[in-house]
Structures are given as structure tokens and as C-alpha cells.
Design a protein that fits this description.
- With about 450 residues, the protein is of the alpha+beta class.
- It has three domains: about 5-100, Rossmann fold (3-Layer(aba) Sandwich); about 130-200, ATP-grasp fold, A domain (Dna Ligase, domain 1, 2-Layer Sandwich), CATH 3.30.1490; about 205-445, ATP-grasp fold, B domain (D-amino Acid Aminotransferase, Chain A, domain 1).
- Helices cover about 35% and strands about 30% of the residues.
- The protein has helices at about 10-25, 40-45, 65-75, 90-95, 105-115, 115-125, 140-150, 175-190, 250-265, 295-305, 305-315, 395-405, 415-425, 425-430, 440-445; strands spanning about 5, 25-35, 45-50, 75-80, 100, 155-165, 165-170, 195-200, 205-215, 220-235, 235-240, 270-280, 280-290, 330-340, 340, 345-350, 350, 355, 365-370, 375, 385-390, 410.
- The strands form six sheets. Strands 13-12-9-10-11-14-21-19 form an eight-stranded antiparallel β-sheet, sandwiched between helices. It has a five-stranded parallel β-sheet with strand order 3-2-1-4-5. Strands 7-6-8 form a three-stranded antiparallel β-sheet.
- The protein is globular.
- It starts with a strand and ends with a helix.
């Protein structure tokens, strides 16, 4: 087992990893920018080291700085959390060259799944159901027209190196195709330095369902059910729940086995999430995230496991402790992502926390790096907390979430907490009757 792990991240996810390490008797190293000197993950780790100025490119994304921090502190392994360098294959290769273990999959698996065309082709060959679309990238508008007519409108143009909703444009007909194609390529070039795009059938009312998988890198893998992440704004998830309100046990076992068999066959190591659009009882693969997800706590609550602990164990070469026949879902869990943003326009709201109180009680978990007097810097993602509740069923989980939201105190800044109070009063949310477009349509109606 590792004696010391460096966490190449910040905020609540850095704290999450530190907690797992402490329970395992592993020393931790926190890295931080000058803007995060007083951050909670810096306070909680056994050691800390400054790796650069506030800009992510010169600190949390600086591979030389993180390698140096490992060498200075003697860290044997790096946990990347999510975001930043968590899906950077070059980072994994460099760590390997320096004899430092990356707690996650291999660089090759990150490369395969990081390119969406290659990922789709790989999954298709592994019998994972995929969205109808182009075979490989689409190089020009003439090619785009042929593909679109073959699969039928509406279509969506996506950046092959995309993420976070960038480089994605919808065309409802041939008239809209040319502008959507050019716009997607330009946006992809600006965001990722790569203007390659591909085309898929655009599903009109799908849900976003993702399957949590875990492999040991030796040909064994399990699935831990699904999460419904359909409440989204600009392709960014707002609320996640498990089990999915529309997924039956039979469907769960079927798609779960398809996914676990797929990652087992490629000897995938660690945590991963296979994401689908789900419409008319059919699953359509869209991408695989080769890392821990923001919303992993809902799976942990329902299955009673510690995914970070398991990541560390497998990376250290220990046998995977997860057994498929022992993984039985229990109850229902919901996660609300709380951001430092001003409603209704979701404008970032950095500033100093003048009062903070975390909700508690049975079945309540609050993952946050906030504390009284902490100043939220303006340089990073606006996520400041994840409120996770677990109940015997979905109704109890919703009521527990409602109660917990009433207990939260975050003074000094604006947050999105009130958004969830409003959503929980909506009949569609209570009934689980929503899709990936529901939230944006609801927000538009409120502005009218």
C-alpha cells in the first residue's frame, strides 16, 4: 500500500480524497495555488506545497509543478480527482516515467475514451449500444449533408475532443446544417485546439443515464447501477439521483452487465462512467469518463461503498474488493450541486463566507470545502458544495433533501440553493418525469 499520496486537485474533491486516505492510514500532500493558501484541503492534508499563481494553467494544470511537488515530498502516487489533469494521458505517461503511480486508468485507456470517435468505435465493437451517426469525423459540409440525410434530422454536431457542452450544435434541417457545422468547428478549435467534429442523430426527449463501472485492470469488472443526470443546464448537471426513476431492475442488470463486460474485456483499471442517452427504452452510448465523477456520492450511498478507497486499493495492486453478487442497491439517493452563483442568470458570485452551517441528520452528507471566513476565489469552478441525501425510497429522499436545504446557511455570497427549493415543488420533479431539456425549458418559462 502507498505511504503517501499527492492530491492534484482542490476544493471538495481534494477533501474527499484526503478523508479516504486518512481512514486508510496514508499520508497526504495537498497542492495549491497562491489563491488557495487558506483552502480547507490545505489545512486538512499532512503536508502542503504551493505550485503556482492563481491561473490554473500555471498551477493545477502545470505538470512540471506537480511532478516537482511529488519529488519534493516523496509522494508515491497521485490522485487526480476530477477535472484538471484527471483525463490527461500525457500526465499519466510523465508520472510513469518518473516512477509515480497514477490512481486511475492507463494512459492508453484515457486516450481511447478521450477521443469520442475512437471511444464510440471501441464501444460499438464491445456490443455497447451507440447513437446512429457518422463513422469517424466529418470533414466538410458536403460530407455533413450526406451523413445527416442518411440518419435523418435533427442531428447534433459534436467536437471529437469535446466536453462541457462546448463544440456542440444542433441542426433541425438542411438549412441550419451549414451554420451549425461551421459554428461547432470554430468553437471546438477555440476550446480544445482541435476542430474535428462528428455527427449523431439528435434525440429529442432523452434522459441522461450513466452506469458506474469499476475494473481491476486484470480482466475483472463490476457495475454499480445507474445515475440519472437528466436535470441539466447548458449540458452541465444540476441534480443527480440513483436509482433512475424510470429504470427497472431487469433493465439495470442488462445494461450494467453490458458495461461491466465491456470494461473487463479491455482490462480497464479503476473507476469509470459510461454515459448514455436513454429514450423509448433504448440506450445510446455518448461517452466514457475515465475518472471519478462529481456525482459519485449517490452511488456510494445506494451501494454502501467507498469508491475512492477502492481506486487507491486497485492502483496499489491489491485485489478489487467489489463483487458483483454482493453489490445490491438499497434505497434512493439524490445529489444537489450547490454553486456560488447569482440566480436567475447563474452569474458567478465569489466572495467571503460570513456564516456557514452544514445540514445534518440521518441520511445526509454535505461535501464542501467552505468554512466561516473562507474567501471563494474567482479563478475556478463555482461548485462550492454537494448535498447528498439517502432515503428508503425516492419520496423519503426528496423530503430529506427539502429538509436539508432548509438547514443550509451560506452567508456572504449568492448561491443556487433556492433553485432546488423551487424544483422540488414541481410535479414533474416529484414524479421523476423529466428529460435533459426539461430544466432549460422550465427556466425560460420562469423568465417569461
Amino acid at each position: 500500500m502507498f505511504k503517501k499520496i499527492l492530491i492534484a486537485n482542490r476544493g471538495e474533491i481534494a477533501l474527499r480524497v484526503i478523508r479516504a486516505c486518512k481512514e486508510m492510514g496514508i499520508q497526504t500532500v495537498a497542492v495549491h495555488s497562491t489563491a488557495d493558501t487558506d483552502a480547507m484541503h490545505v489545512r486538512m492534508a499532512n503536508e502542503s506545497i504551493c505550485i503556482g499563481p492563481p491561473a490554473s494553467a500555471r498551477s493545477y494544470l502545470s505538470i512540471p509543478a506537480i511532478i516537482s511537488a511529488c519529488e519534493i515530498t516523496g509522494a508515491e502516487a497521485v490522485h487526480p480527482g476530477y477535472g484538471f489533469l484527471s483525463e490527461n494521458d500525457n500526465f499519466v505517461d510523465i508520472l510513469d516515467d518518473h516512477g509515480i503511480k497514477f490512481i486511475g486508468p492507463t494512459a492508453d485507456h484515457i486516450r481511447i475514451m478521450g477521443d469520442k470517435i475512437t471511444a464510440k468505435d471501441t464501444m460499438s465493437k464491445l456490443n455497447v449500444p451507440c447513437v446512429p451517426g457518422s463513422v469517424g469525423q466529418v470533414v466538410d459540409t458536403s460530407d455533413a449533408k450526406k451523413v445527416s440525410e442518411a440518419i435523418g434530422y435533427p442531428v447534433i454536431i459534436k467536437a471529437t475532443a469535446g466536453g462541457g457542452g462546448r463544440g456542440m450544435k444542433v441542426a433541425n434541417n438542411q438549412h441550419e446544417l451549414s451554420n451549425a457545422f461551421s459554428s461547432a468547428r470554430s468553437e471546438a478549435k477555440a476550446a480544445f485546439g482541435n476542430d474535428e467534429v462528428y455527427i449523431e442523430k439528435y434525440l429529442t426527449t432523452p434522459r441522461h443515464i450513466e452506469i458506474q463501472v469499476f475494473g481491476d485492470g486484470k480482466g475483472n469488472a463490476v457495475h454499480l447501477g445507474e445515475r440519472d443526470c437528466s436535470l441539466q443546464r447548458r449540458h452541465q448537471k444540476i441534480l443527480e439521483e440513483s436509482p433512475g426513476p424510470t429504470i427497472t431492475n431487469q433493465v439495470r442488470e442488462k445494461i450494467g452487465k453490458i458495461c461491466s463486460d465491456a470494461v473487463a474485456s479491455i482490462h480497464y483499471a479503476g473507476a469509470g462512467t459510461i454515459e448514455f442517452l436513454y429514450e423509448n427504452n433504448e440506450f445510446y452510448f455518448i461517452e466514457m469518463n475515465t475518472r471519478l465523477q462529481v456525482e459519485h456520492p449517490v452511488t456510494e450511498a445506494v451501494y454502501g461503498v467507498d469508491l475512492v478507497r477502492e481506486q487507491i486499493r486497485v492502483a496499489a495492486g491489491l485485489e478489487m474488493s467489489l463483487k458483483q453478487n454482493e453489490l445490491k442497491p438499497s434505497g434512493h439517493a439524490i445529489e444537489a450541486r450547490i454553486n456560488a452563483e447569482t440566480l436567475p442568470n447563474f452569474i458567478p458570485s465569489p466572495g467571503t463566507i460570513t456564516a456557514f452551517h452544514s445540514p445534518g441528520g440521518l441520511g445526509v452528507r454535505m461535501d464542501s470545502h467552505l468554512y466561516n471566513g473562507y474567501t471563494i476565489p474567482p479563478f475556478y469552478d463555482s461548485l462550492i458544495g454537494k448535498l447528498i441525501v439517502h432515503g428508503r425510497d425516492r419520496t423519503e429522499a426528496i423530503e430529506r433533501l427539502r429538509r436539508s436545504l432548509d438547514e443550509i446557511i451560506i452567508d456572504g455570497i449568492e448561491t443556487t440553493t433556492e433553485l432546488f427549493n423551487l424544483l422540488l415543488n414541481e410535479p414533474d420533479i416529484k414524479n421523476g418525469d423529466y428529460n435533459i431539456h426539461w430544466l432549460e425549458e422550465w427556466l425560460v418559462k420562469r423568465e417569461e
